[in-house]
Fold each of these.
Amino acid sequence: MKTIRIANGQGFWGDSLEAPVRQVEGGPIDYLVLDYLAEITMSIMQKQRARDPKLGYARDFVPLMERILPQCLERNIKVIANAGGVNPRGCAEAVLAVANKLGLGDRVKIGIVAGDDIMGSLDELLASGVELRNMDTNEVLSSIRPQIQSANVYFGAWPIVDALKQGAQVIITGRCTDTGLTLAPMIYEFGWGENDWDRLAAGTIAGHSIECGAQASGGNCQVDWENIPDLANVGYPIIEASEDGTFLITKHSNTGGRITSAVVKEQLVYEMGDPVSYITPDCVADFTSIQLEDLGNDRVKFFGIKGYPATELYKVSISYEFGYKAVGSLVYAWPDAYKKAKAADKILRARLDSLGLRFDEILTEFVGVDACHGIELSGEPSSEIAEIQMRVGVRGANKADIERFTKELAPLVLTGPPTVTGFAGGRPKVEEIVAYWPALMPKSCISPKVEII
């Protein structure tokens, strides 16, 4: 039975720069998939493109391709990445320039999957009755229309399959599903049909299992975390897929980390939602049908997966301006560190109130006591606590009020409780808030655009 090996080399924009190189150099693989995009990433890229029309993509991808492209072409490793962000053509042209620099331009076909960016057609869509209501609040998109910064449809695997059929060795997409990057090679290599729901669901779950990189191979793992070996040399996950829809998760030998069913389960529940109905553009996958078998030697088998027909809707990721924020902190040292930090917070709030400053929200966390879990303390913590970080954040629509807040934290050093330390960072920085608006739209309203250069 035919099998292929699909390696993940990137879990987010900012992940290890060496991971994809090590996946290529560490052993046999057929595909390298790189997941750069999160919801907030699209708005960051949109801002970059507004400043420079040539930008708007994951620029780390271009020097990476300069390092690995010769080996990928030599060993026929295909690269699939959503590094294109809001400018997949710009990203593809930058990669082509690198290929030409290496003397490989005539040997590489680069596929572009675009059409997901609907910023330019939002008003037309709204006028046609596509309301793009917020999936959480049911509000209509028109209520925030002036603040919108980016709007992108999540395409699935099939446009990538189209690019593969046209001979692309490197495929660069805009906003597509994380799972589609891995599912597409399986559809292409095994000839799966559009209604082969069980196998499409299996490929979707394979993609979900490795989309966060080393989180599937021992990184960020709670189970027996102290004994996971050599995380400094952690191996990123590899799917070994078979045409019947079964697959293994493994990693290159001589790498750190661990792949067991216990580790894999932690990744499976990540962003899962309803376990019976994990909805993608390609199918609906039933996570409760997953069966796992530990084969030893960092190999876990998946089988028995069930899937159901895809819906008629695409998910849309929309980001919009939501005012401003600033976050600052002071560290109070022993003795009575917590008592001092609480007193400082009370003093600060009184001063902000006396200045007439108004915020939509002000939040104080006492790091070292309750910040991570938000647990209300019953009584005072021990006076022997060595230090407490008082972290204060404000947000609101009035930028001037946020800026004034940033100037009120430092005076506490000499006009508040004693033993402040750790203020070397200076004044907090005022930042724009980007909020997230999830919506749905009919698939009939939009089509992906696939191009080969």
Amino acid sequence: MVEQEQSAAGGGGAIARAPTQIGKYQLLAELGRGACGVVFKGFDPFVQRDVAVKVALHDPDADDAAHERGFFAEARAAGMLQHPHIVALYDAGVEAELSYLVMEYVDGETLQPLCRPGARRAPLAQVLDIVFKCAKALDYAHGKGVLHRDIKPGNIMLTREGVPKLMDFSIAEITGRTSAGGQGVLGSPLYMSPEQITRARLGPASDLYALGAVMFQLLVGTPPFTDAELPLLFRAIRHTPAPRVRDLRPEVPEAVSDVVERLLLKDPAQRFQSGHELAATLSRLFDQLRLSDHQVTRRESRDSLRRLRFFSTFSDDEIDEILAVSQMATYNPGDALIREGEIDNAFFILALGSAEVRKRGKLLHQLEKGDCVGEIGFLSTTKRTATVVATTRVLALKVNATLLDDMSRDCQLRFYKVFAETLIYRLSVTSARLSALS
């Protein structure tokens, strides 16, 4: 049943009356509207959670069947994707001639406020984190055969905790099922790749170009190309090299500027070829910048790891492989290795020193040389449930799951075998402690 009240119109069409309920979902307030529909904050009384409900706008001049196919193309694309950095789709349906999608409600706002020319620029670490997580989300979507085709600041939500989430797959292409042919130029002009403008075949590098344009804007405050007239804008995107970030913001590290420059190259074959490749590059870069004052020489690192039980079966060459995709760093007393509430996919092995695991300030566990911590985040990229703080000078290996794919297969297998054995041992010890307490 759909209950209706005051009229609402906008975009390319209108909803005769703004609904207050659609199906089982109560509609509480309008959140925004675009060319395809109006988004309401809703409530699902069955599972007692807030949701976002997108209701299709009706265009009296449009082909209703075609419009409905286009609206539910978003449902088909988003419904294939379950990822922590993609807004989840819960439900879709038609009620009293209104087509609607029910999605995860994100308490936050889009990246647009961070991208305004006069706004204070986001910290570099936050920019790298946002782009890294969006790259991971795109890599997952591309692996499922879904191209987003409309990456822009307005389609990336940022939760109150700072977690980015891709949304709006309304013009997504499902590889092998749909085609851009005959649809005209689709996308948001400021962020479109050269091949998207010319309606050439698109691939993952096209979405990554758009993400590069977003990264450029986060760092500089404007998109790479800003011509007001569409023909001039398209000509610049196709033929004019994008400005270098460092030419506009000299304080940005050269390596960061190089990443943006590669993302915005005209030839798709010269860009990053996958979200994984971009994420791996950003992960290395982030650690290099963050731990630049804590770096330890390769020989010191190898010698320190060789003395740990975790690496007792690894050859020197295999340890070198691990060091090539990891970071060995020192932490002073009081430094945090992991912070409660953060989301990442790394875990740590203490080579020297001791640390404490604390939750909401309460001491949970003491870590010593050879201990591992952060395995659950490494496996599932979930929020950290505790903080780990160095109590003495600590030398630790930070292992990032994203980068392990760059190791040889034999080294990966050995690493995961020892990792699994270590995790099983830790879980058995924890279980024994809980049994003793009960």
Amino acid sequence: MKIKLILLFSILAFVLSMPFIFNKSVTITDPHKLDADDNFIINEWVEPRESAAPDWNYNLKPVKVSDRVWCFFGTLEMPTKENAGDMSNSCYIKGDDSWIAWDSGPSYNFAKQAYAAMSKIANLPVKTVIVSHEHDDHWLGNNYYKQVHGAEIIGTPSINVNYHKGDQTRMVKTLYQDAIRGTELVPVDKSFKETTKFTVSGVNLEYVHVGYAHSEDDWFLYLPDDKVVLVADVVMNGRVTSNRDGIVIGQIEALKAIKSRDWNHLVPGHGFVTDKTAADESIQYFDLTKKRVLQAVEDGVKADDITKTVTLEEFRDKDLYYTLSAQNVFRAYEELEMYSGDDDEK
């Protein structure tokens, strides 16, 4: 009798849970509770951190990288309310009659203040914004340029697939209203499937597709006449990268594509080194990660012990080593455990 009651209650519980498993018969009053596949996002919504304070002052100072490229360099940290999300690098390229923005930063206010700083150098509108990848610290300023300048947004199609108006991104959840105020998610206007060359305001550009590397879909921007390459998070220096959404093999291939171009200046997604050595740390980090994880797999090291075996001590003095390196190694193990590349690559 006891077994029958348990079975009966189990069946009843399953029936009652059916709407929540399949989601289709539940009335949704808050669309942001659903992901792109109409599944519930459990504990996803974060109440906005209200603030009556004036808009956050990012105190932005552009750094001249080449004759027509200026960049804003963020801190070597994770996004916090203390840095207001200013932890990635974004750039301006001076065209004949307009600015071209590369990665618009973490908020509407950031983009607005970046433009105010750049307009002192040349009072030109921003008619084109080019985005490197879908991580929100690189493009949440897009709606400033769209709403104020009528700019065309060029970027990865994954932004339109994975983000929608009203969604709460990582930055929106983290920052206070004085920083994120006015920020809205806007779609990309134009995207490409493959590497594309085009000219904007007299500037020759090559928008290079490297695919699944640091994120689901990464691109970098090459200025052949200026010998400048803007690579975003495929390269970081001064800190350990976050490979939470990336793959080691993809990163290595992307770095090869970057090295194949003729450049004198490289602007990373995070970090301050922009000379010919700018990519060296990333190249070493991913080469060592691949080599050592593959060796550990060959030696029979199991998942539970991989972060004890592969520690990448060479990067212990870099920012975010203790926060990110172990999880990078574990993710690399998951990727490379069944890797079938050439034996001499180990």
Amino acid sequence: MGENGLTADVEGISLYYRANGAGYILVSSQGNSAFNVYDRRPPHAYLGTFTIDGVTQTDGLDVINLPLGARFSLGLFVCHNGAAAPYPVELVKWGDIAAALGLPVETQYWDPRHPRIADVPPPALLPISLRVVPNPARAGARVSFHLPRETHDRLAIYDGAGRRLRLLHEGTLAAGTHAMTWDARDGDGRRVAPGVYFVLLERNPLPSIVGRVVIVE
């Protein structure tokens, strides 16, 4: 048993951003199916622990402060549920979690679609040459990116557990701007469940680029 009840494995960590360096670090305590919350600012004080009904053995998680429609007006917490196959991604209202722990909610500060307003130095940000629009999305999204040179590329969609759901493209692309559409369906043509998904552009021999898209009902 670790400090503040943190129990191995610790396989999910995410940041909730607030202004002036404030916010929270969320950590998956997989061994006891709980989630610990710490202050984002040093010395990272422990702020509390919460659980999600029916969720166990979480490998990965994420959180966003932005309002995502009426259902998630105070932000969204998502996590992998290892309780039983098919191991779904669970969506939880961040406002409910924050209220239970007495955490301030801030819905106007950090927007990953506009990283210039974040208090993270630009060199530390993911490359901004990959765009996903709209985001959040319902029926699907358009993925656009710019290649400075001809490369062999693979563009694919992954779920929060790291499983590849859909291969959108594999082959050589010329230098320039490209756009492809994902219809929010997996490789078997089934619509994916609401949640957070990742867009991975592998560029050989250039570094890969990762984007994120939220699919809503």
